Amino acid sequence: MDLAARPWVASYAPGVPPTFDVPEGTLTDLLETSVRTYRTGTALEFFGAATSYRELGDAVDRAAAGLRALGIRAGDRVALVLPNCPQHIIAFYAVLRLGAIVVEHNPLYTDRELRHQFEDHGATVAIVWDRVARQVQQLPADIPVTALVTVDLVSAMPVSRRLALRLPIRRAREARKALTTTDRPTGPRKVLGWSELLRHRPLPHKHPRPSATDTAVLQYTSGTTGVPKGAVLTHRNLLANAAQGRAWVPGLEAGRETVYAVLPMFHAYGLTLCLTFAMSIGAKLVLFPRFDVDLVLAAARKSPPTFLPAVPPIYERLAGGAAARGADLRSIRFAISGAMNLPESTVETWEAATGGYLIEGYGLTETSPVAAGNPIGPTRRPGTVGVPFPGTDVRIVDPDDPGADRGPGEAGELLIRGPQVFQGYWRKPDETHAALLDGGWFRTGDIVRMDEDCFITIVDRIKELIITGGFNVAPSEVEDALRAHPDVTDAAVVGLPRKGGGEDVAAVVVLADGAALDVESLRSHCRGALAAYKVPRTIVQTEDLPRSLIGKVLRREVRTQLLNDGPRAEGSDSR
């Protein structure tokens, strides 16, 4: 490789190859290779219940046959509305085995949020957590879902755990209620249980397979503006990013790593690091339906983790919990943080607790998602997001003229090109054209600087997305929900920096004549239309909102004013 073309390879950790070739094949091939190679090794662990790679492969083939019996064919979309569980992994690969397309959804979405996405992608079958099956069953009749497959998380647990959840005590009842329901949704759509899907004979090996350029996943993202759009990711995109991740971590031991899935797999970050990367190295993937310090530390006693992808608040809570309980985290050699800023204090605390490395990476849903990372070694630079991944090209350009490159050390918009860059937004040609430039360059909307050693520092975002808890929130979506309240005539929503990294959702509202600010009423209203992480933590009142000459609300000015006002008692929430 010509270092003048990609000078950042000089900053790679020892053992990371300077050149990169995308592996041949598909995600289906990835899993089947691991099934053949690590047959008796543990692929999945869920509350102590283990699934071998051989058992995983068989379940995938059976689920694929069950989906085929429901009419799923190549190119069809299948919606997954699931937390982390073994059925999620099986369903993901079963859909891909048919050449169909996985559409991931947050199971905590409201009816309104789910409706928008289902209207957009047109899935005919949905595999759903039984606790949210009623929501999908009640979607309008014009949405083309014809069948629901319901998943009971408890059924994937070991017998001892299932029996404990049936004890006639309050704590057991509450725990069971949080995991499953006995309420079978009624309505026009066919409903069958997960076990019914697996009763079929395994799909024949000769059944047609997907190709590398076929769409594998639609991953919804707010992109740079507006409501969520489906990012089209091919088998090649996701296979490439898993291989880039393997190349980035020298010292990985195939078949011997234990990866903890504390990140939700419906999120692009969790999908790649758990659903594809972990399976590609024959790792034991320990699944958690939600992050809980006690659950993670208890699991670590039986299956010590070696690789932990997460976000800064998780690292902080785990390190603090381990210190308080005298738990040992020194098995964790590699930890990769993303989705929000990683404070240097968190790095110091984590590395002192584990003796391993904690490095920050950078990516977007549109890049499958990882595009850059800090070297795993002493050359890492906390405060930066590292250097471009193997096989990845970057440019820093004038955001008003992306054809004009910025000089070294100058701030500009980051453009990315590589095998992990998506194919565009599902059925949105105008948005795709705006995001993908000639030559395959993707406009990230992020303003960055690159130093003399090619380490990238995020300076600002052109886009006005709010990143809270690792999730993207489109301000316009929250504003629409607020304006639907009878007391609100207008609203502006922005992100305010949170101590320890990330942002909180904050809203400034203009009230109708005679209305008084009732923060809890507004929050309750928002909870009916939005996922909990999108509900504003701070709501303040104003007489009017700052606007441009054409009447557009100037969110940057709103944010500046809120920051200048300092601590706000009115409408603030210390959650």
UniProtKB/TrEMBL annotation:
<dbReference type="InterPro" id="IPR045851">
    <property type="entry name" value="AMP-bd_C_sf"/>
</dbReference>
<protein>
    <submittedName>
        <fullName>Long-chain fatty acid--CoA ligase</fullName>
    </submittedName>
</protein>
<dbReference type="GO" id="GO:0016877">
    <property type="term" value="F:ligase activity, forming carbon-sulfur bonds"/>
</dbReference>
<feature type="domain" description="AMP-dependent synthetase/ligase">
    <location>
        <begin position="32"/>
        <end position="426"/>
    </location>
</feature>
<dbReference type="Pfam" id="PF00501">
    <property type="entry name" value="AMP-binding"/>
</dbReference>
<dbReference type="InterPro" id="IPR042099">
    <property type="entry name" value="ANL_N_sf"/>
</dbReference>
<keyword id="KW-0436">Ligase</keyword>
<dbReference type="Pfam" id="PF13193">
    <property type="entry name" value="AMP-binding_C"/>
</dbReference>
<dbReference type="InterPro" id="IPR050237">
    <property type="entry name" value="ATP-dep_AMP-bd_enzyme"/>
</dbReference>
<dbReference type="InterPro" id="IPR025110">
    <property type="entry name" value="AMP-bd_C"/>
</dbReference>
<feature type="domain" description="AMP-binding enzyme C-terminal">
    <location>
        <begin position="477"/>
        <end position="552"/>
    </location>
</feature>
<dbReference type="InterPro" id="IPR020845">
    <property type="entry name" value="AMP-binding_CS"/>
</dbReference>
<dbReference type="InterPro" id="IPR000873">
    <property type="entry name" value="AMP-dep_synth/lig_dom"/>
</dbReference>
